[in-house]
Specification:
The protein is α+β, with helices and mostly antiparallel strands. Helices cover 24% and strands 28% of the residues. It has four domains: 21-150, Tetratricopeptide repeat domain (Serine Threonine Protein Phosphatase 5, Tetratricopeptide repeat), CATH 1.25.40.10; 156-431, Tachylectin-2, Chain A (5 Propeller); 437-536, Immunoglobulins (Immunoglobulin-like), CATH 2.60.40; 542-708, 2-Layer Sandwich (60s Ribosomal Protein L30, Chain: A). The strands form nine sheets. Strands 10, 11, 12, 13 and 14 form a five-stranded antiparallel beta sheet that branches. It has a four-stranded antiparallel beta sheet with strand order 1-21-20-19, with no helix packed on it. It has a four-stranded antiparallel beta sheet with strand order 2-3-4-5, with no helix packed on it.
């Protein structure tokens, strides 16, 4: 009898507990099913606490409530809260029932910059669902995150604090041709509806306008004027045709306990700042489907976002066209896999050149929604090759709805830290400062970079007609720094973007640089310091790289110590660089041996160089004049302490200038044989002297055939 009473009481308690648990679960599921995520997060969390973990069925139910709580937080963009509840669902092994628990938790961790944990969740998910590209994209995003940050663009991003409030402010769009009126959606207190959006828990939005000042900063906004434009419903993303005669916007109905999707509405301009009663576009087959985020150029072709059937996953971008005859919009057409993914594609806008901006979470990026730019293909309504705009336009949360004011300025929506410290959608402006370029020109003597030339006139001429000049300093350099164009803080800009420039240099005592040097900034999207090394030909002998010969012979010496043919490449390259140059090529000997013998030897050595350049390298024989100087022009060197220098030093303090005559060299014949040999070697040299810079193959006389004939040598 006692046992029966105990059993009855136990059954009553269990029945009561089960009923209580089910009551909370039913309320939670009802709120979740109606997409009332703000309420659902509370209801599901409450049901979770009421449920026991005993028994497989109870554990499954508790895991489901944890998952639905996490989903409610995710869909209201409370990512840290979502991560906490996904972790609970995973501990309850709910991922074995719904693998997406791991996928979505990976997304939350990625947006919180916990990349290693995120990758671990993605990999666990791929073990269960191997072919899901969403996890693969997530892993790629984590792995590329450092690269995104390292490749940060030069954009300057600024919160439009004069526009934004603590509530949602999003999806800016220009509403006039002067781009002085910025339309956007906002849920601020002064909006028409007092209710909260059940999906986000935020106030219903209206359409607002902010006047932009001359600097592009917004002023205190006011509501869009027009009958039936702003209502108790949720009005958001807006766009206009190019004439600003048609306005399209998104409206989501405020109907309690009904899951009604959003629609696109259209209004015609009534006056300068007022709009007529709007009409709804018929684009969907079922009320639960959502269409929104319209964008257009001509008011006849419309791109929008929708979750209608036939897409690739989530919300896709679709298009429709207006037919004047039927006065209707065509059946929507999906933009295809070039744009759409298994994730969500939202907030399309057109770039100035017809490219397509849009936001997606289905491609590798920094955060949730990232802004991409797809390139327009021909004249068709087709786009391809979406490219992530990178940091700082995109951040770790959601970024979307970007519009261009010009090539360097625009506005977009971002969920980075707002004016009240919360991570809610705000309107941001961006600016791309001009690329900045330094230009430094260094001038030295041709063939000897150690000799810097000062007081060289340097003239820079741009293809855009710009021109400026300067003079090299004592180090042979002149410098123009980077200064932004049309910026009163910095003054006049020298080197501009997407331009080509020619540099010419000149100085008395040097041959004119007719060819000059060129550089270009075309295609550069980063700052750069241009350093141009240039040279002038002195109107004096040019010391060539050393050319050696066997003793008392004129064959070009090639051995382990020197390749004289390589040395002559200097002459070849010089003639190639200056096609108008005619060069006298002279050879010198030391003073040992008879004067006549040395003369003949030097002539043959000069001809050996001539023969190699003409026959082996193909140089026009009329451009080289071989001359033998014998021993008659001893070299001048510069002695500093115990060292002999071939090149005149810039600072002659303590330096003795010496002509290497036979008498001077012979004083070391016995006392310092090494120096004796070195000084003789200084005299054995091949030099170049410019005859003219105006060689014309059409008028130049024939080459001297004797230049290829060696003279008889005594031995």
């Amino acid at each position: 009898m006692k046992f029966n009473i105990f059993l009855t009481l136990t059954l009553i308690v269990l029945s009561t507990t089960t009923y209580a648990q089910n009551k909370y679960v039913v309320k939670a599921k009802t709120a979740y099913a109606s997409e009332n995520y703000a309420e659902a997060s509370k209801r599901c969390a409450e049901a979770y606490t009421k449920l026991t973990r005993k028994g497989n069925q109870a554990k499954k139910m508790k895991g489901e409530m944890a998952f639905m709580t996490a989903e409610s937080y995710r869909l209201t963009e409370r990512y840290r809260d979502a991560n906490e509840w996904y972790d609970r669902a995973i501990l309850l092994e709910y991922s074995e029932i719904v693998p997406e628990v791991l996928l979505y938790n990976g997304d939350m961790l990625r947006m919180m910059s916990e990349f290693d944990k995120s990758i671990s969740n993605y990999n666990d998910y791929l073990k269960l669902v191997p072919q899901d590209d969403r996890a693969k994209v997530g892993i790629e995003s984590c792995e590329r995150n450092k690269a995104f940050v390292a490749e940060k663009t030069r954009h300057i991003v600024e919160n439009q604090t004069a526009i934004n409030k603590k509530e949602f402010d999003m999806a800016p769009m220009f509403g006039d041709r002067k781009e002085s009126k910025l339309y956007f959606g906002s849920g601020r207190d002064a909006s028409m509806g007092d209710d909260k959006d059940p999906r986000s828990g935020e106030g219903y939005m209206d359409l607002w306008v902010s006047e932009l000042d001359k600097k592009g900063n917004g002023t205190e906004p006011y509501q869009v004027v027009g009958e039936g434009i702003n209502t108790v419903d949720n009005e958001g993303t807006v766009c206009f045709d190019s004439r600003n005669k048609l306005m399209f916007f998104t409206r989501c109905p405020n109907v309690k306990k009904q899951n009604l999707g959003c629609d696109i509405w259209m209004s015609e301009a009534k006056g300068k700042n007022e709009w007529k009663e709007p009409t709804k576009l018929t684009l969907k087959s079922h009320d639960s489907v959502s269409v929104g985020h319209p964008c257009t150029i001509d008011g006849k072709y419309l791109i929008f976002a929708s979750d209608m059937a036939g897409g690739f996953g989530g919300r896709d971008l679709w298009s429709t066209s207006y037919d004047r005859k039927s006065e209707s919009w065509s059946a929507p057409v999906n933009l295809g896999p070039e744009i759409n993914t298994k994730g969500n594609e939202l907030f399309p806008t057109f770039a100035m050149n017809g490219d397509l901006f849009f936001a997606t979470d289905g491609r590798a990026g920094l955060g949730g929604l990232d802004i991409f730019r797809a390139t327009k293909v021909g004249e068709e309504n087709k786009w391809e090759n979406p490219t992530n705009l990178g940091s700082p336009i995109n951040g770790y949360n959601n970024d979307y709805a970007l519009i261009e004011k010009d090539e360097r300025h625009g506005y977009f929506t971002s969920e980075r830290k707002s004016v009240n410290g919360e991570y809610v959608p705000d309107i941001f402006s961006y600016e791309l400062p001009p690329n900045l370029f330094d230009l430094k020109v260094n001038v030295s003597e041709l063939g000897n970079k150690d000799i810097k030339i000062e007081e060289v006139k340097v003239v820079v001429t741009g293809a855009d007609g710009s021109k400026w000049e300067g003079y090299t300093d004592e180090n042979g350099s002149v410098f123009w720094d980077k200064r932004p164009n049309d910026d009163p803080k910095f003054g006049t800009r020298f080197v501009n973007e997407n331009q080509s420039y020619t540099i010419n240099i000149s100085k008395e005592g040097f041959h004119e640089d007719k060819k000059g040097s060129t550089f270009t900034t075309t295609g550069l999207n980063y700052d750069q310091n241009f350093i141009m090394d240039m040279a002038l030909l002195p109107k004096k002998p040019i010391r060539l790289p050393e050319v050696r010969y066997p003793l008392n012979k004129w064959e070009l010496l090639v051995d382990s110590t020197i390749n004289s043919t390589d040395s002559l490449l200097f002459v070849y390259n010089l003639l190639e660089e200056y096609p108008g140059m005619v060069l006298e090529l002279s050879s010198h000997t030391d003073a040992r041996g008879s004067n006549s013998a040395n003369q003949k030897l030097s002539e043959n050595r000069a001809k050996a160089c001539y023969k190699y350049l003409v026959e082996e390298k193909g140089v026009d024989p009329r451009r080289i004049v071989p001359v033998g100087k014998g021993e008659n022009e001893p070299r001048t060197v510069y002695k500093k302490e115990d060292s002999y220098l071939a090149v005149r030093p810039k600072d002659m303090t303590g330096v003795e200038e010496i002509v290497l005559t036979e008498a001077y060299i012979n004083q070391f014949k016995s006392s310092n044989k090494e120096l004796f040999s070195l000084l003789h070697q200084f005299n054995r040299r091949t030099e170049g002297k410019v005859v003219t810079m105006d060689f014309d193959p059409a008028t130049a006389p024939a080459a001297d055939a004797n230049h290829l004939k060696f003279v008889k040598y005594p031995w």
